[in-house]
Each structure stands twice: as C-alpha cells, then as structure tokens.
Fold these 4 entries.
Entry 1:
Amino acid sequence: MSKHPILWFYILAFGIAWLGWIPAALGSLGVTPFDQPYFQPLIILPALSPMLAAVVVTRAAYGKIQVGELFKPLVQWRIDLGWYLVAVLGPIVLLLSGQSLTKWLGFATTQLALQGEILPLAISAFVLSLFSNPWEEVGWRGFALPHLQKRYTALAATLIVGVLWGLWHMPLFFWKGNPMAEYPFLPWFIGIVSSAFLYTWLYNSTQGSLLPVTLFHITLNTFGVVISGVSTIALAILYVLVAIVLVITFGGNNLARWERVQAG
C-alpha cells in the first residue's frame, strides 16, 4: 500500500461501498436472497467507505500515528467567516438558480413532489447528511485530493477525484425506488465532476480545512430535498459554468489564491 496509496484507497472505497449498495440494488429488483431484510444493515457501509479506506491505507502506508491527522481538518475552524457563508449559502444559491433555469428553459425534472411538511423532511435530510458527508470528505478531499495534488495540478487532481466520485455512485442508478435511479446519468455525471471544482476551491482556499467543504456538502444535500423543481441538466450547466469561472479566475495549477494543498 505504501507504493500505491491512491490506488489502494480507491479499491477499498469502491469495494466497501459497493458491498452495501449492490445487495440493495439486487434486492430492489427482487433477486433472492438480497431482498431479505438482514442485508439492510450493509447500507451503512457506503457512508463510511471513503473514511475507512483512508484510515486503512494511511495506517498501512504511513503508520498508526498519522491516522489521527486525517480527522484534524474536520475541526480546522480558524478560517475567514466568508468561507462559512460560501459553504452554507452557496448551495442554496445554486439550487435556487437551478430552479429558475429549469423553469426558464423548460427542463423536465425527475424530483418527486414533496410529501408532508417541509421541516421534517429538511431535518431528516440534514441528519442523514450530517452522519455521512463528513466521512466522505475525509476520504475524497482529506486523503485523495492532497495526494493527487502532490503529483498533478489542482485541475488534473480535481478531474480524477470528480470522475471517480461519480463512478463510485454507480450502483445507486440500478437501485429501484432510489431517487437517483430516475436521474439521467450523463447530465448528473457531468454535474458531479464539475462540482468537484467547487470543493477543491474551498479546500485549497482554506488551506486544507475540511469544515467548509463538509458544510457545503451537507447544505447541498439538505436543501436539495426541500428546494423542488430543479432539473439535473440545469444543475449540470451551472456547475460547468462555475468550474470554468474558477479555472479562469484562479488558474488550473492551484484553483485557489493560495498554493494547492499537498500531502506531506
């Protein structure tokens, strides 16, 4: 693992996550025995897989003492207040803009109509995101991105992280009844790869803090549930435009005003 930490990280991140998602997808299609309830606890694995993969590889390649360093960026809170505002308000602006663009261009949306009160839905989405997204970011941006940025430019590293992040979700598109199974794959995939530029910008601009990155992820997933009428295509267009602006403004080398964060 010490020779190829990134390769091993992604093998483990995919393997652990798909161990949870593939049985769920097969069960939703009525494939026995995966339709039995005793497979349901495996669903927790995808949320933890990037973090678990990062911990295993870090311990094997760099030693036990380095494992704790993976989690310190989650509480690296001494950053400018403006980055907290970007992390919390940015996703809301993107979603509302996506909603307006969807109406303006007449795009169809696959989002289901809201059932019940908005507040309970928002709380449920927030709690789910709070217990899953931080562990994703420990892997994607806390481990993979700085290791890749040590060898490549921020632009190239972001594309690698974004593409693999998108492919990591693949089993969800075969899970009958899961909302993502209704998404048009190509626009969604373009959108998630492009959105990775936003995450890299936040991460490098705050000199390696995972706190604003995680807040952005949580806010996006929470308000994505309650802000209705947003087309996957509209969001993809917005993410692509934002990615282009970031590259033009800050350059592909660092994608931030500061030098890109690299693994030690």
Entry 2:
Amino acid sequence: MPAGSWQSVTYGKGQFVALSSTNADPNEMVSTNGQSWTATSGPAGPWTALSFGDGRFEAVSSAGQIDTSTNGTQWTQVWNHSNYDFTSVAYGNGHFVATDSALGAVAISTNGVKWGRLFPAPNTVAKWGAVVYGIGEFVVLDNSSSGYIATSLYGSVWTVHQLSPAHEIDGATFGCGTFVGVGQSSTSTANFISSTSGTTWTTAAAPIDATSHWSAVGYGAHRFVAVDASGNIAWSSTSANCSAAIPTSPRQVSGNINNGKVWTYMHPPSSAGGAPVNSYRVNISNGTIIKQCSAPVYFEPNCIISGLEDHHVYWVTAQSHNRFGYSAPTDPEFVIPVASSAFDAVTSGPVVSGGEPVVVQVTGIRANGEGIYPLSPITVHVGATIAICHASPFGECLLTLSNPPVGSDSIYATYSGFGRSYQSPTSNVTVTT
C-alpha cells in the first residue's frame, strides 16, 4: 500500500476506494482486487468514513466535509461546516445518513448531493460514533458513553433507546440478521454489543485486554471481524445459513380516518426474511393508550382500529411478521380522527393562553383515485400569519405556531389539487394575555 494514514475504505462499481484520515498527499488510493493499490491526489480530508449506495460514493470528514463521487476518483464537495465532526456514513432504503460526534446531529440525504440535519437525541449529550443499516432501519450509536442508541427507517424520524451499562461505540456493522457495535466500556469488560432488532442489545466480553479500544468491525464470509487501536483482531463466526431472519418493515403505510376510527393500508415489505410473511400488526398510540389490529396477508394488507377520540392526535406504526418475529416498526405517522371527512382547519382549542402555541389540525385533504394526495403544499392562514405543510399519508396536517399575537384571529386552509381549488370553512382562535 502507498504510505499514508488510511482509516476508511468501501467497495462499489468494481473497485475498492480508500481515503486518508490526514490531509496529506496522497489523499486517496484505489484497487480493483484489494491487493494492488494505486495512489492518487484525491480530495483533501481528513476523511473518517466512506459509503457506497445508489451508484455513488459518499465521504465524510472530521472537519465537517461531505464529498460525493460517481466514479470514486472525481469528487464534488456538497457540505462543508467545520462545527461538525462526522464519524460514519451509511446507505439504505434510498437514503444516506451520516453521524456527527460534535453536535450530536445526523445528516440526511436522499440523493447524496443535497443534505439536511436532525438531532435524534439531546445534542448536549449524544455524540454519534457510528451508523449502520440493516433489516430495513438505520441505527446510530453514541461514542461518548451516554448509552444512547437511536433507530429510524428513513432517517427523518428517530426513536431513542438507552443502553445500560453505557458503552462508547466507535464502529458498527450488520450481518446475518444481527447488528454489532464495538468500542470501549468504562464500567465493564464487555466492549462488544449486538442486537437482532436495533432496540434491545446484549453485551459480550473482550477476548483480550479489557481496556482495549475497538475501533471498527465488519461482516463477511460468515464472520464478524473487529480491530482495535493496538493492532489486535477478533472474530466471531455465525451460522453458514443466515436465512433465519425477520422481515423488513411494511412499505407505504397510509389510510383513511373516520368518526373514532383509523383504517390503515400498507404494502408488503421489500424482504420477507427467512420465512414467508404471515401477518401484519398496526399499532396506534396517543402516549397514554396503545391499540392494535392485525392485518392478514394480502396485496394491500389493511385493518381498522376503533374506539378513538375525534380531534385527538394519534401515532401509527406498522410491522411485518414471519415465524422468526416482528420487523422494526415503520416511522410514526400522525392521524387525527374526525366525525366529518370534509376539508377543515381547526385549533385544538378556541382559546389559547398568552405564550402558549396555537396547534392547527387540518383534516379532510382529498386524494385522487390512486390514493395520492396533492403534491402542492397546503396553505394555512391564521390571521396575518401563513404557514405551509404537506399532507401526511392519511391526508392531514398538524402545525404548531409559536408565540401567536394576542387577540382574535380567523383560521382557514387552502390548496389546489387534481384540477380544482379547495378552501376550508373559517374558524376562530382567541389568544389571551
């Protein structure tokens, strides 16, 4: 290999690509066989991680850079914010996700060119050290010993979990139906963690020095292989048959609302796992109660949950099931049951105390015959304030307007779709002092 400091490597389009963790020439090397390497100037680093997906390479650096390339040698910078310290990047489900250990953020992209950011957990605590994709979901793991782990299907909505005892996780991988993370534990000798769901984790002891700092792990040829900062290598074998796996999550969860009811549809998962899917489960919750219904295997599995309160906000998730267990839940979607399916915009209460936000519920947004809601935004008018939203898969919007002015304001919503314009009736909200 050419002289240098090589920390990141990935494979795509018939070649291995590695980037340097120091900003020193050569910054890059490539190989078509993993044995003979060619050095090139490459993009200036310092690079910490590489990923390949959707026909392009994505590189992230500890200096807050993200570069992209379609051939692995010609690179374009698409993000440069020095207050970020990117540690890892992964691709899955049509999305790239990069983790940051400086602010506790994740960066998200659907095309590898345009990126946005989110804070899955309190950014004063979580410092993300690794991201990995498997069984239809992303998993990000903390490297500051806070014990936070967060999961998401698309990277836009995250569920945070707490690992106890807390571990510092710097590397993660997925293989044979299992997530594996490696790092360093300040409270025990268990420097390895694993999970088949991304939510519940078990620990394993380090095979050598308990204080060793494990930095990376990968999967291949029925083995997990981990390396540490002292030059040690550890491996753990798996069954030669990895087909015994749970399915991925259902796709395109949507539905209709009615008086006290939610009717949920979905499409089968992209992967059935190690056995045929035999059922689906829909969960709905308002934070206090949880209701479920079971959907049979069908082209568009569906079921109805009743006994809900109108104009209360509920969150819906769905799971696939085979004989090995349930998939990860889909990202939560909100639903608001209402007595009438007419287009309407109302607040959660006609009177709001000063300093409290005004919450606007927009329901009854119409879809076309294929169940597609208008791509045009819904405009919500609250007095002189205008807010924009896009319909959820259940044909609704939920807006929170902070610091509304004192007084009485009218509320209505408008949108254009499928050849005509719609305007809701006008209601009023009063903000008191």
Entry 3:
Amino acid sequence: MRIFLVGFMGSGKSYWGKLWAQKHEVPFYDLDEMIEKTTGKAVVDIFEKKGEAYFRKLESAALRSLAGEDHCIIACGGGTACFDGNIEWMNEHGLTVYLHASPSLLLENIMKEKEKRPLVKNVNEAELLFFVQKKLEERLPFYERSKIRLRVEDLGEKSFDKIIS
C-alpha cells in the first residue's frame, strides 16, 4: 500500500515517515528531498529564485512520479495537498494520513528548523504564530480530505500499525 503523509510543516511527516518505513521495511520518500536531488537546489532556494508556483509544479511532478511504487511511505510537503488536485490524486492512488497538530506545537517544531522553511525564514515568532494559524485555516479543507487523521501529540512508534491493520 502507498501511504501519503500530509499536514502542515512541522507536523512530523518526515520524522514519522522515516521511522515507520524503517520499522516496516518499506521504502520512504520525502518529496522535498526528491526535488532537491533532482534539481540540485535547496527548496528554500527554489522558492526564493523561481517562486512558489514553479516549486508546486516540481512538487506535483515528483508526487506523480511515485505512481509506480506500490509499497512505500511518502512524506509530502506542507502545501502538497492544496495544489494541482494533489489530494484527490493521492486519495485515488493510496492511503492519505493527515498528521494533525495544534498551532502551538507546529510553531515549536518550525522554530527548530526555521532556516530550512522557505515560507517562514524571515518571520519573527509572533508573526510566525499568526502565519501558522492563518495558513492552517486555509489548508485545513484539503488536509481534512485525507482518509485518516492522527493527532501528532498521540503519535508513537506503533501508531503506524493501527493504520495498516
């Protein structure tokens, strides 16, 4: 089964995806890493030099390139589900899992890696919390189309077992 992890930046898609894939001995793909490998550029540089629209095209192409992978876990970017009919495509081609987290937890996690996050790189903490709340509100209708919803605060190594059972 192809499993797509969706949710806001800082929700732990890459962290949990890698852990669960390793535990269940299935391939793990991170869309951002795939794009960086393909282009030879960091996601933050693509955003800054080519813009978000260009990045979203690369992201959709990377996502669809995994159509032939039958058993894997894919960590999607925070906005992947919201563009180009991606959430519908993912629902047709696998199991979508929304990793839901509170804005305060997301803020805490984002602050740890702020420089790697193109949309928030130059924002202070107060502005960042407002940004997270606003963007999360915009993206929620897409995230909620996922087939499964898991609270990040409740996740553990065995959480994935419940998804596949």
Entry 4:
Amino acid sequence: MSDAAQREVRALWNHGFISLLLTQFFEAASDNIIKGVLTFAVAVGAPWETVFGKGGNGLIGVAFTLPFVLLSAFGGRIADRSSKSRITIVLKTISLAVAAFSAVEFARGSAWGALTALIAFAIVSAFFGPVKYGMIAELVGPSQIARANGIVNMATNVAVICGLLVAGLVAHRWKAGFVNGVPSGESAWLPGTAMAIAVLLGFLTCLTLPRLKAQSPDLPVDFNPFSTYITTLKFMAKGPLLGVCFAWTFFYFVAAIVLSILPDYSAFLGVSDEKTSHLMAALAVAIGLGCVGAAYLDRVERRQLFIVFGAGGLALGFMALGVAPNDFNITMALLAATGLVAGLYIIPLQSMLQSLAPDDLRGRVLGTANGLSFALGAAGSALFLALRTLDVPSHQIFSVVGVLCAMVAMIAGWRLRRAAG
C-alpha cells in the first residue's frame, strides 16, 4: 500500500497525532507564558513601562514576530528535506537551554535580557511552525485534516489560556516582589520556573513521536530565506493557494492587535493583571470551540460561506468592543462571542492550505504562509504602536480592527459572487 493510501485510512486519534497534539500544547503554553509575563511587565503602570516606553507591548509583539518572518520559509525547507519528528526533538532540546537563560534574566530583573529570551523562543517556534502543520498531513488521512486542524487549534487555544492564566498569576506575584526596580525573593524565579515546566513536558512528549521519513530528502539547502519565499510564492500564485494564504494570514494581523490591546484593559477596567488574563482566556476558549465546531461542520462546498460569515462576525464583534462601556462582564461576553465566529474563518482556510499544497512542497508552502502570518502580525503590532503613540485609547483601536474585518468580509463576499457567476 502506498504512503498516500496508508494516510487515507489512518484514524484521526492515532499515536502520532496525539504525540504532536501534546507537544504543540506545551510549545504554545511556554511561548505564551514568557510573552504574557513580558507583556504585563511593560503595560501601563508596570515596572518595565519606562524601559520600552508608551505602547511597549506593541514593541514586544514586533520583536516576537520578526524571527517568524525571517526564518519560517527556511524552516519549511528544512522540514521538507528532513524528518519532521527528528527536527522536533532537536528544537525541543534547544528550548530547554533557552528556558534556563530566560529564568536567569527574569530573576535578575533584566528587561532586555528577558526580551532576548523571548526572541530566542520565537526562533525555535519559527522552525517548529511548518514542521507541526506539515506533520498533520503525514499523520492523518486527507479526509481527517480539517478535524485534525480543529483539534490542534482547540488544544493550542487551551494552551494559550493556560499560558496566559499562568502568566497573569506569575506576573502579579513577580511584579509585587520588585524592590528598587529589581525582583526579589522566591517570586523572582516564578517566570523561569513556569516556563521550564512547560518546556520540559514538551520535550518529553516529542520523544513519543513516530519516526517520519523526509518528504524531499534531495532538496538542496539554501541559507537565503528570501529565495525560498520567492520561489514558493511564485508556485502559489499559479493557483488559489496565494489568495488562501493571504486570507489566512490576515487573521494573525488582527490577533496581534487584539493581544496588544488586552493587557491595557487592566488600567481601562481597573482590574488586576490576573483578571485581565481571564479576558484573554475567554477569547482563547471561544476561538478553540469555534475551531472545533468549524472542523466538524467543514465541507468543501461550505468553506467560502464560512469565511465570509466568520469575517463578518469578527467585524461586528470588534466594532461592538470599540464602543462598549468599561464593564468587565460585557467585555468578556463580547470577546467570547467574537472568538466563536473566528473558528469559522480560520479552519476552512487552514485546511485549504494543507490540502492544496503538494506533499513534497508542503513544508515550504506552510513555512511561507507562517512567515507571512507573522509579517502581518508584526504589521498589526506596529499599527497598535502607531495608534497608541497618537494617543488613541487602546479600547478604541477595536473599532479600527472591526472596519478592517468588514473590508475583508466584503472582498470575500465579492469573490464568492464572482465565482458563482
């Protein structure tokens, strides 16, 4: 039986998929712990606000995304020419060293050292992105890809919730332990301890991945990341892949802005960082549930309608958040409702990317898409930083996001009508 035939009959909940699911869970959790603590540390009134200046959480977002922009396509090339399971083990081993470095930098109160650790984690994740998404298509049958995506997205969002909740708790205690601008006592090591646990668990789960063979072992190594982007984009432009890619990456532009806005809600709503992390958790839970729902409702003929409906729902939700009163419960309800419809937008596009990409090019296609998603994420963080510099209140930036989503919904609807005609 051929590899393609074997994948077609492979059940969704197989050993390899479960191993990948757990590894991705702990990867996402560790990333969000360090990013969450650092974002809370530079938010309005926080100890490192003066280090990075007004809108510093936008700067954190840009710094986190740049490695993905520069390295994702190169990571996709490595994923195509090597065993994805072997690459995962190497990357998780490197993560252990990065976790130790980040623990020291947070404990000694070095803002720039903590930022360096965040960038190091982002570098590892940039290589892991095309590996994990490419691995899904190797571990499950084509008919199961949409459901696998939904489950991975759900697990990732649960990991984001856990990471953000831990970040909120850790940031609150870590900031409370500052004496003369430096963390002190046992709380100084809380960020490092939390990250180390998540990274260690991710390392252990990746050891259970099945051995996967390289899809394109003769592919030459090209250390110029932009050449891979160029050749892959040219291939994608020959069919619908490029349009699907840009529609998918737009979501990460929006997500970067939203994740920059929410830490400032501590000051806007007059609540603690821990309670603000509950808002982030509500959004993440809702997105996860929306992803699973979309995955099980997914049909080829429904995908374009789902995309239009999802973009329109995002537009309405964000516009409502832009004018909502500063009430915690109303904000949480609106975030949850907006997150639910997000899954209808993400999952059809992600499944189309994976199914349309050829086996021997899938790593580069997904790596390119991943890199572009973070390029747009950096643009979103930069837009947030620019608007905050112009003294636009953080919560009102939601209205800007809503208008942009409405434009995407109209473009998607226009293309759908054109295709039908």
